[in-house]
Amino acid sequence: xxxxxxxxxxxxxxxxxxxxxxxxxxxxxxxxxxxxxxxxxxxxxxxxxxxxxxxxxxxxxxxxxxxxxxxxxxxxxxxxxxxxxxxxxxxxxxxxxxxxxxxxxxxxxxxxxxxxxxxxxxxxxxxxxxxxxxxxxxxxxxxxxxxxxxxxxxxxxxxxxxxxxxxxxxxxxxxxxxxxxxxxxxxxxxxxxxxxxxxxxxxxxxxxxxxxxxxxxxxxxxxxxxxxxxxxxxxxxxxxxxxxxxxxxxxxxxxxxxxxxxxxxxxxxxxxxxxxxxxxxxxxxxxxxxxxxxxxxxxxxxxxxxxxxxxxxxxxxxxxxxxxxxxxxxxxxxxxxxxxxxxxxxxxxxxxxxxxxxxxxxxxxxxxxxxxxxxxxx
Length: 378
What we know:
378 residues; 5-stranded antiparallel sheet
């Protein structure tokens, strides 16, 4: 009996050791879901982009795409909103959550508002209910003397490029029809007399807006030279060093060299520096001078294109553009691309837990773990 009991005991021990070793070997790293288990953004890839992203006060992530509408991610699953749900367009260009928790959605045809609590029913607004929530189309009244937009591709649209809420609580909208300020009651065109050396934001002149810690408003777009700063009374134009790129995809050699001296204001970092970007690189403004960074300095990308810049919780500056993600620690640039199906990055978001989310062309969404990209699109 003793020998049989000992054999049974040893057998049980071996089984326990085997199960323990197998389970340990099969564990994932903490916080990193298995590729087949985590939720996916969409079923069918489009030719567009995941081009904007925010996290709301409740912790939900919102992603705007250029072809597939708006996605809300609650940490477990994605929910898609499209025109049939009340949006005025499936082409989402910018997102902002205001101080009241309302989410403003900029599209190629105007504005929508997503309010988790209020319901709108006035004649001015086109209200649609979606799952107990409300999408509201907000109409920006255009000045009667607004010059016609001569853009051959987008002149018939009412594109909203970016949205910013200032410390005053007022909302600023950069649109193809000019810049507008909203005080919760009405929209006011932001116009300064161009003849006096100022700046006239009439058509397609401003695409990005940023407020710095001193309350100055920075404006920039591709049809300008340099960038502009509005201090509440007057506006100043800042000239930028020209950044040159060589576009190898252009057929004729004489057209391959292109110079850019415009810039999009992107962010002000913890040290007070303001960062700008364009199709050839980035600029850092320390309050006195502009320092330029290009592909030759280590920026990733085809020709050094930079579409998005953020600062992470560790103080690193992250650049997204035509060749993946670049991290700048103040001394060196490090490029990351491993796992990206398409390396063209349009959106970068750091959530409250420190995860980095990246939106790319072909409606790609990725979670960056610090080394590689985990695909959240299907």
